[in-house]
Design goal:
The complex is a heterotetramer.
Chain B: H1 2-10, H2 12-34, H3 66-102, H4 104-119, H5 122-132, H6 137-164, H7 167-174, H8 179-215, H9 226-232, H10 242-269, H11 271-274
Helix pairs in contact in B: 1-10, 2-3, 2-10, 3-4, 3-6, 3-8, 3-10, 4-6, 5-6, 6-8, 7-8, 8-9, 8-10, 9-10
Chain C: E1 3-11, E2 20-29, E3 34-38, H1 45-53, E4 61-69, E5 72-73, H2 79-85, E6 90-93, H3 97-100, H4 107-118, H5 123-136, H6 153-165, E7 171-175, H7 183-200, E8 203-208, H8 211-217, E9 220-225, E10 228-234, H9 235-240, H10 245-253, E11 271-281, E12 291-302, E13 307-311, H11 318-325, E14 333-338, E15 341-342, H12 348-355, E16 358-361, H13 375-385, H14 390-403, H15 420-432, E17 438-442, H16 450-466, E18 470-475, H17 478-484, E19 487-492, E20 495-501, H18 502-507, H19 512-519, H20 524-528
Helix pairs in contact in C: 4-5, 5-6, 6-7, 13-14, 13-15, 14-15, 15-16
Chain D: H1 5-14, E1 29-34, H2 49-55, E2 63-65, E3 71-73, E4 76-81, E5 87-92, H3 106-120, H4 122-128, E6 131-138, E7 141-146, H5 167-170, E8 190-196, E9 200-205, E10 219-224, H6 228-236, E11 242-243, H7 253-257, E12 262-265, E13 274-280, H8 290-299, H9 302-309, E14 315-316, H10 340-349, E15 361-366, H11 374-387, E16 391-396, H12 400-408, E17 414-420, H13 425-428, H14 453-464, H15 468-484, E18 489-493, E19 498-501, E20 504-505, E21 522-523
Parallel strand pairs in D: 1-10, 15-16, 15-17
Antiparallel strand pairs in D: 2-3, 4-5, 5-7, 6-7, 8-9, 9-10, 11-19, 12-19, 13-17, 13-18, 14-18, 20-21
The chains are: A mainly alpha, B mainly alpha, C alpha/beta, D alpha+beta.
């Protein structure tokens, strides 16, 4: 099956998943108690029936459910995710405005997690049962057991409150209006705490996975063959053991994407990082259905595309997969 | 079975985990005996530091005894962790078994559904579920169970797929055993080890998820759990560190203990390494 | 003397079933000769070979003795010096070609890697040398770019040999190189090894459990048991006149490959199968990959008291045919008449009463018994499924256990407490619990050691005679078939190529493929001389 | 003490109340914060506290009010009231121009008070429902003719209820979607400059502002700062000069009060006169029974709530009218002090004996969603205090839409809430006790279903009483009945702290605080 055919198949699958996401969240949120009209009524402090009725009409909330779904699907197809009830702005604009911040944070976390995790895992696997190996295992189990949001709060407590080394909140120093390199430096400084908090959780899982994968591969026959061929031990470790251990890592990276988005809701909330994580939380508490639905769709599409990338990477890493299903 | 005990007890970390977990469950159950007053009783001024008179762990933002709060908080966290895992394992085993054993359409269908749950950010879905069902203990448990059963289903399906081909299963069919008997007496007992490992890890992650929900204010308002204690202390943290540090440590220790047990189970029950 | 091993002792990690893997083993390997180490599984033959290469697994250490290679003691060599010798002065090939090559790297680069590790030459020239080596092995140079999973078992073993010979080592160690291969492929690989040894005047240490291979290949032979050398000497001396009792027993247990049982007078068949076909579809639910016919229009008859052997290489469809007869699989076309009723397409309800009269013994002793059940529960599973009284079933179980040579005390024990041979006996007992008319044995002995194999085969034959069973015996080993079957049927690619009384087929094979199979039986030439 | 309104105003008119100080440094920016972004900046349409504080600098009202709630000149430099209290004539300043250069005339006042305000803002609609007609006698004179006397009429012209909107911008357009809603035009000291979504709203100084010497500053930034901790850090690090009500969680008040370069003002919101209350759905048994409500109050230690739960912010409320607002009469109030024994006695008297588990009655307590802040802590304290007298309150977390929907449709047992008195009971308090204001489906009305004919009569008479003394007698009788009847569970008067940078002067100039704008602010 040629690679293009494989990608086409995967894109169809992504579309199916996104459609399922839209359908599920649409049904779920439409059936939820309370709707947009009550949102705005509640917020403006003063409201009466006339005001509420006009709002419902304006946002088409009085039409029957299937009609609402049909109109909604039509608009989504055109890329219009509706307007946010609370912010009175197109949902897509709000999300796209905040998405880069989340992508920046998640990318940083993923890179640190994969690099750190593989390096730690490989080091632990080289001397199984040694002190180094045991400490990596316990350390990774530790980070696996720590609630992410609490880890974030501890980071704020230590590095911002007590040591005051790093800014605890936001993406930039407020009102400083730096530009160019200064601004990049400022953002980087702000990204350290949330980024590391998000990364440590996944670093732990990558370290564990790399360690177990490498120990398992080290027992395989072809590693014995390599040694029988008189290959230097370091080359055996890199070219034979690590090369094969990477395969499960690639699929694991794919699975991590959706968990990463979930994780960033918590970390962004603790650090007031203006990403779609905080947006999702605000949308849920303010019952802003279109915004929440929009975030679902955008994250689902992103994660699906990321999975497509990892699938292709997997097929490159493991020639045994003839780009089959 | 005795070989399993030998290997499991042989692993120091698993033993420590079991001891710590048992201690936590014991304190949670014995809380009414240990402490005269309930977790909500106001005992003094808020935000008194640990070691203040009569307050080993200090007082929280409402002037309640933190130590009593931590003991009663354990109840909710453990209750949610265990019940939601049981729910998830129940659904997961059922669907995984059917898909793994019969294969074909049911298998493909289940794989599509589990893949869907992998794609969608599960925590965001959980937030909506809990908000939709109005935050309460039930909605938390149902929500967590709904987003974690696919993980179990995938493991069970994998086990059933491999065990279905084993010769003792084919022998059972030639001996005339009905499908149900084969599933429950032949395959399921052999699929139990990985299920137990996944379940023990899942109790830990369920506790973490519950604490995250309570932290975001989506937990049950009438109950005191470690997560809600941390959630309530987001501002207080700046003037009273113990209101955040102590509940967080309790969660970490409990989940760590569970992970150690899971690791021990994995080694003891995993034929390859255990033998 | 190229290799001289003196009093080698290798300790096993604590917790293994015995303390020493190899106990004071001594033997020599001269230049330009093939030495064979033969012994059953667990005899320490493989550990000895690995010790020479310095490839002992983690936790297994050489604690005594010495291995002189060209005067240099391998055990005392620093790791770096030993590494330089491996692959250059001495090389090794392994048993399972499927797992011995790195799945994610092309064949060419894996061979070139070894050359570049020892010689300072460019990757390009190394690849050219690799192409020549493959040519010598009868493999096209195009294979350089393909991956291991795209090659057959035989091709991969040839690649391993090419790789081992890339720096013309003086010693080649082959650890059961052909055990995992088909009979015909095995014959070709052994022939290739013999030619190369003669051509390069090199020394070969061949590890095997099959005396036929020893007979065909070895100049000298060493017999090992429980980590110690029992006997050694030239092949003719050891095979012709074995001095040690263990060797004698071993040689006697090897099936000679001559038909023993006379054909039975033909009676009306209990089972008659007419042009049965079974197709499998590769790929998943959506893919429209072509279906392959595992069994294509096969017919056979089987009467009471008779053993019909179905022989063929892996992929010939013999096992699928057996599973169709016992309705573990549902055939697409064909008729299976059993006691007058066609059970080919019968619904499971009607099939149940007939199904209990056909039972099966499986191949892998470690997978055919449920590890979590006691032997008692395993045996009464059949009667319980048909609602018979449990107490009677338990009594009968004890009785049948004695019949297959086990004590009734084992009813309470678990499968992991029994050896491979004992487990096959339990499997047979389980099949006999339902008092079947037909017994299907699917490769019942191929996973067992030679001595145990002989006992189980004799048991099967006694049971067949005693209970007047009709038996369908599936095997890939012609020698085993000759020992047990009245008639044999040779299958290839899902079709029957020849069928007839065992004696006639072995003496005057009419089909070319049968002749090729018979010729490939190791040790057959010497046996009939 | 019959004060002649005209006399008061006359004296004030001469010497402008806000004396023009010499402002040394004209440069400098005020940095304030926004908890989250308002949907729109159209003052009357989206009347949250945040919009009041931002638009307080942009849109001005006819009158301002001093600490004793006496009217002061603003866009109207003078006004007369007819002896029968039915006609008010306002004389507008002639030198006022809109930010876009158009002249401010009577036409704008008539358009605002007759059309735009009543249509968009429910509180304005309530006030202007007493107005028969609004006519412009000439370009700078406006006459209001009332249907019957309404002594709270002047107070209802406060900025938060009656900001003057530009007729030339809004007349004939759909107020809700008018493009100027997100770039408002006003006459105030600051004008709208830029709104960068998710970041800040920037107001710059109005060069042509009519009040001499104002504004003292060059501009104001309202920066988005979503979480309480982030706002606290912003204040402490000096990145922000101003923290308004509800910006800071009371937990950390002690930290900011102790901060040397910050000033804490507790009187900046006397104008709104907010009271935190708990409402009982009196249609459902036993909430209709006065003794239950009294027992409820007796069970709570409201001093502890203020001191411990609110960390000292606020004062126990004993009646419907805040102690700082006019017409408050302490001596007539029936006060309910913390007395659990009396609470149990009252419940026994009602027949609510403790059943299994010591529980006398079980009911739901719907909480205002505030993400675990002061509201939630208050409710948790109440639940605990009530449990000690055998009342089991089940806390219910909600989000804003659910809270509005359920409270509007009376689908609750008990809820936490708060209302602003806005200087006059007729504006802020009456709506919660008038039988006529029991309207299903509408939040912030007489949700409890409290109906007392004498109270209705008193509220009606007080509103139309011309003479303050006459209104006082009615309101005193009102407070006596309502407190005796425990008509509502008044918790405490909120005195939210306003923190600002010590170097900023004249931040709080009156009871309305920030809602009157920061025209007078200067940086020392």
């Amino acid at each position: 099956m040629s690679r293009l055919h494989f990608i086409a198949m995967r894109l169809v699958k992504t579309a199916l998943v996104v459609f399922a996401v839209v359908l599920l969240s649409f049904l779920l949120i439409r059936l939820a108690p309370g709707d947009a009209a009550t949102v705005m009524a509640g917020q403006s402090g003063y409201a009466d029936e006339a005001f509420m009725k006009s709002l419902r009409a304006e946002y088409g909330l009085d039409k029957p459910l299937p009609a609402q779904l049909a109109t909604y699907l039509g608009t989504v197809a055109r890329g219009d995710l509706g307007t946010s009830y609370v912010r009175r702005q197109p949902v897509l604009d709000i999300i796209l405005e905040r998405l880069p911040n989340t992508l920046l944070l998640d990318a940083f976390a993923l890179v640190v997690a994969i690099a750190g995790g593989v390096w730690l895992g490989a080091a632990a696997a080289r001397r199984p049962g040694s002190a180094g190996d045991a400490s990596v295992t316990v350390l990774s189990m530790l980070f696996y057991a720590v609630p992410q949001f609490w880890l974030g709060m501890m980071a704020v407590l230590v590095f911002s409150v007590w040591l005051a080394w790093l800014p605890p909140f936001g993406i930039e120093t407020m009102g400083a209006d730096y530009t160019g390199l200064a601004r990049a430096g400022d953002i980087a400084k702000h990204m350290v705490l949330p980024g590391m908090t998000l990364a440590l959780y996944y670093l732990a899982s990558y370290a564990r996975l790399t360690r177990t994968a490498m120990i398992e591969v080290a027992d395989q026959d072809f590693v014995k063959t390599a040694r029988a061929k008189g290959i230097r031990e370091s080359q055996v470790a890199r070219r034979h053991i690590l090369r094969n251990a990477l395969i499960p890592l690639v699929t694991f990276a794919g699975l991590q994407a959706s968990i990463l988005v979930g994780g960033s809701v918590l970390v962004e909330n603790v650090f007031s990082w203006p990403g779609i994580g905080t947006l999702a939380y605000e949308a849920v508490t303010a019952r802003d259905n279109p915004l929440l639905l929009g975030i679902f769709i955008v994250t689902a599409v992103l994660v699906s595309l990321f999975n497509l990338v990892t699938d292709i990477a997997y097929s490159i890493a493991d020639p045994r997969v003839e780009m089959g299903r | 079975m005795k070989k399993f005990a030998a290997v499991f007890l042989g692993r120091p970390m698993a033993l420590v985990g079991l001891a710590v977990f048992a201690a936590i469950v014991a304190t949670a159950l014995a809380a009414p005996l240990l402490f005269a007053r309930g977790p909500f009783t106001i005992v003094g001024m808020p935000l008194l530091p640990p070691g203040a008179p009569g307050l080993l762990a200090g007082s929280d933002v409402l002037g309640r005894d933190m130590l009593v709060g931590l003991a009663y908080g354990a109840r909710i966290s453990l209750l949610v962790g265990i019940t939601s895992t049981l729910g998830a394992v129940g659904i997961g085993v059922l669907l995984g078994a059917v898909a793994g054993y019969y294969g074909g359409v049911t298998d493909d269908l289940l794989m599509r559904v589990t893949e869907f749950f992998q794609i969608i950010p599960s925590f965001v879905l959980l937030m909506v579920l809990v908000a939709f069902l109005q935050p309460s203990l039930n909605s938390t448990v149902i929500g967590i169970a709904l987003i974690s059963w696919p993980q179990v289903a995938r493991v069970v399906r994998g086990e059933f797929l491999s065990l279905r081909g084993r010769e003792f299963v084919q022998a059972a069919r030639t001996l005339g055993m009905r499908d149900a008997a084969i599933i429950f007496t032949q395959i399921l007992p052999n699929a139990l080890p990985p299920i137990m490992v996944v379940s023990s890890m899942m109790v830990g992650s369920a506790i973490l998820t519950e604490s995250a929900l309570s932290f975001l204010g989506l937990g049950d308002p009438n109950l005191l759990s470690w997560g809600s204690m941390i959630g309530g202390s987001r501002s207080a943290m700046w003037v009273a560190w113990w209101t955040t540090v102590l509940p967080g440590l309790s969660i970490m220790v409990t989940v760590l203990a569970l992970n150690f047990i899971g690791d021990g189970l994995n080694d003891a029950l995993n034929p390859r390494r255990g033998r | 003397m190229l290799v001289s091993m003196q009093g080698l002792t290798v300790a096993l990690p604590s917790g293994a079933d015995r303390s020493l893997a190899v106990d004071k083993v001594s033997f020599e390997i001269d230049a330009n000769e093939i030495v064979c180490i033969v012994g059953e599984s667990g005899s320490g033959k493989s550990v000895t070979a690995h010790a020479i290469m310095g490839l002992l697994p983690r936790g297994v250490t050489a604690t005594g003795g010495s291995i002189l290679f060209d005067g240099v003691d391998i055990l005392r060599q620093p790791p770096e010096a030993l590494r330089k010798m491996r692959g250059c002065d001495m090389a090794m090939i392994f048993q399972d070609p499927m797992a011995a090559l790195n799945p994610v790297v092309t064949i060419g680069r894996q061979i070139a890697e070894q050359i570049c590790a020892h010689r300072a030459i460019s990757q390009g020239r190394a690849l050219k040398q690799a192409a020549e080596l493959l040519g010598r092995m009868g493999l096209p140079a195009a294979l350089l770019k393909s991956f291991p999973h795209q090659l057959s078992g035989g091709q991969r073993q040839r690649v391993m040999i090419a790789m081992a010979l890339s720096l013309s080592p003086r010693l080649l160690i082959a650890d059961e190189p052909t055990t995992a291969l088909d009979v015909t492929t095995q014959a070709q690989i052994l022939k290739l090894l013999k030619e190369i040894q003669a051509e390069r005047q090199m020394s070969v240490l061949l590890i095997t459990h099959d005396f036929g291979v020893v007979a065909d290949m070895a100049d000298r032979v060493v017999v090992m048991r429980h980590g110690a050398v029992v006997e050694s000497g030239t092949t003719n001396a050891v095979l012709g006149a074995p001095s040690h009792a263990y060797t004698q027993a071993l040689i006697a247990a090897v099936p000679k490959g001559e038909a023993i049982l006379p054909p039975l007078p033909s009676t009306d068949p209990l089972i008659s199968v007419t042009n049965l076909s079974k197709r499998f579809r590769r790929g998943g639910f959506f893919s429209h990959a072509p279906t392959i016919a595992a069994v294509d229009g096969v017919s056979l008859t089987l009467s009471r008291g008779e053993t019909l052997g179905i022989v063929g290489e892996s992929g010939s469809g013999k096992s699928t045919l057996a599973r169709c007869v016992i309705r573990l699989l549902d055939p697409e076309e064909g008729e299976i008449l059993f006691d007058g009723a066609d059970i080919a397409h019968m619904r499971s309800g009607a099939l149940r009463p007939l199904r209990r009269r056909i039972q099966m013994v499986f191949q892998d002793p470690f997978s055919s018994l449920n590890p979590r059940q006691t032997i008692g529960d395993i045996l009464i599973a059949g009667p319980r499924a048909y609602g018979e009284d449990i107490k009677d079933a338990r009594a009968r179980a004890a009785e049948i256990l004695r019949m297959v040579g086990l004590t009734s005390e084992s009813l309470r024990r678990f499968p992991h407490e029994f050896s491979g041979g004992q487990r096959q006996r339990i499997g047979l007992a389980r099949a006999l619990m339902l008092k079947p008319d037909v017994l299907i044995a699917d490769e019942p002995v191929s996973a067992l050691d030679v001595t145990v194999q002989a006992q189980v085969l004799r048991l099967l034959d006694d049971v067949r005679a005693q209970m007047n069973l009709a038996m369908l015996f599936i095997t890939h080993d012609m020698r085993v078939a000759a020992q047990v079957c009245h008639r044999v049927m040779v299958m290839r690619h899902g079709r029957v190529v020849e069928t007839g009384p065992t004696r006639d087929v072995f003496a005057v094979p009419t089909d070319a493929y049968t002749r090729q199979l018979l010729a490939a039986i190791p040790g057959r030439l010497t046996a009939t001389q | 003490m019959a004060l002649d309104r005209r006399a008061i105003l006359g004296a004030a008119a001469g010497a402008p109340f806000f004396a023009a100080h010499a402002w040394a440094a004209r440069d400098g920016i005020i940095n304030a914060m926004m908890t989250d972004e308002p949907a729109t900046l159209c003052y009357p349409l989206f009347n949250t506290r945040l919009v009041q504080e931002i638009c307080g600098n942009i849109n001005e009202s006819l009158l301002l009010f001093d600490w004793q709630f006496r009217p002061q000149p603003n866009l109207a430099q003078a006004f007369e009231m007819s002896p029968d209290g039915l006609t008010y004539t306002f004389h507008l300043r002639s030198d006022v121009i809109w930010h876009d250069g158009a002249k401010f005339t009577a036409r704008d006042v008539v358009f605002s008070c007759a059309t735009m305000l009543p249509q968009l803002n429910p509180r304005s609609r309530n006030a202007f429902s007493h107005v028969a007609s609004v006519t412009a006698k000439d370009a700078y004179t406006v006459v209001f003719r009332l249907k019957e006397p309404f002594n709270a009429f002047l107070l209802s012209l406060m900025a938060s209820s009656a900001p003057m909107m530009p007729a030339h911008i809004y007349e004939g357009t759909d107020f809700r979607t008018n493009p100027f809603n997100i770039k408002p035009i006003g006459t105030g000291p600051f004008k709208f400059a830029q709104w960068k979504r998710g970041q800040f709203i920037h107001l710059t100084r109005n060069e042509h502002y009519w009040r001499p010497g104002q504004p003292g500053m060059d501009g104001i930034y309202y920066r988005v700062c979503p979480t309480p901790e982030q706002r606290m850090v912003a204040m402490e690090t000096g990145a922000v000069d101003l923290a308004l009500a509800d910006d800071i969680d009371t937990v950390v008040n002690s930290r900011l009060v102790a901060n040397p370069n910050l000033v804490a003002r507790a009187d900046a919101y006397n104008g709104t006169g907010e009271i935190r209350v708990m409402e009982l759905n009196q249609r459902r048994w036993p909430f209709g029974d006065r003794r239950f409500r009294a027992a409820f109050l007796h069970a709570l230690d409201r001093e502890f709530m203020v001191k411990a739960i609110n960390f000292g912010e606020g004062k126990v409320a004993h009646g419907p009218i805040p102690s700082t607002a006019p017409y408050y009469d302490d001596k007539v109030l029936t006060k309910y002090h913390h007395d659990p024994a009396k609470a149990r006695a009252l419940l026994d008297e009602m027949g609510l004996k403790p059943k299994l588990g010591g529980v006398r009655h079980r009911f739901g307590l719907m909480m205002v969603p505030d993400g675990g802040g002061a509201w939630t802590r208050g409710a948790q304290y109440v639940k605990q205090a009530l449990s000690e007298v055998g009342l089991a309150a089940e806390l219910e977390t909600t989000d804003w839409p659910t809270f509005s929907r359920r409270s509007g449709n009376w689908d609750f047992d008990c809820d936490t809430n708060s209302y602003g008195e806005y200087g006059d009971p007729a504006i802020g308090t009456s709506r919660f006790f008038l039988t006529s204001n029991i309207r299903k489906g509408v939040p912030l009305t007489n949700l409890q279903g409290y109906s007392n004919l004498e109270v209705d009569r008193l509220l009606g008479q007080a509103a139309v009483a011309i003479d303050r003394a006459e209104a006082q007698t009615h309101y005193s009788r009102l407070q006596q009945i309502l407190t005796h009847d425990a008509a509502m569970l008044w918790m405490y008067e909120r005195k939210p702290l306003l923190f600002h940078n010590r170097r900023l002067k004249n931040v709080v100039m009156g009871p309305n605080g920030p809602a009157d704008g920061f025209g007078a602010v200067t940086r020392a």
